[in-house]
Design brief:
This protein is mostly beta strands. Helices cover about 5% and strands about 25% of the residues. It binds iron/sulfur cluster (SF4) (2 copies).
Length: about 140
């Protein structure tokens, strides 16, 4: 099994620093791959990344919620959305996303749709080569 980063990820990056097997890669280009992605073949399911995420975006694959109920105010970010998010990440670098949407309290979102992009990023997408063009966001 692997851990999965969901569309609640807004690239804070706190998780990357603690992964003992360095299997978390910031997506590039950001408009096509807006999250950080976990290599499912390398993740050892240690769970160290989970408490480091201020947005609670990371789940064991079999615990990704099919009906995530929004607290209200949190963002999801995924290809196809057109909203704007700005913030500052764990390292103090600016985050700007134009694939975002702010959720309303009580809104229910199926996060299991976010499992496949984690696999696709490494199977047919940029995978670890995205580290070569990392811009810190
Ligand atoms: S800490 Fe959370 S929001 Fe930040 S990159 Fe990791 S999964 Fe995404
Ligand atoms: S569960 Fe452990 S090995 Fe997997 S991505 Fe998180 S920190 Fe890395």
């Amino acid at each position: 099994m692997t851990h999965i980063i969901t569309s609640l990820c807004v690239r804070d990056r706190g998780c990357i620093d603690v992964c003992p097997v360095e299997c978390m890669v910031p997506g590039q280009p950001v408009a096509e791959w807006p999250w950080i992605y976990i290599d499912p073949d390398t993740c050892i399911d240690c769970g160290a990344c989970v408490p480091e995420c201020p947005f609670a975006a990371i789940f064991p694959e079999d615990e990704v919620p099919a009906a995530y109920t929004a607290k209200g105010g949190e963002y999801i970010s995924k290809v196809g959305l057109t909203g704007h998010f700005e913030g500052t990440n764990h390292h103090g670098n600016p985050i700007v996303l134009d694939t975002a949407k702010q959720l309303e309290a009580g809104e229910v979102v199926d996060l299991t749709a976010d499992i496949k992009p984690n696999y696709d990023f490494f199977a047919g997408g940029p995978g670890y080569s995205a580290n070569d063009v990392d811009d810190g966001m």
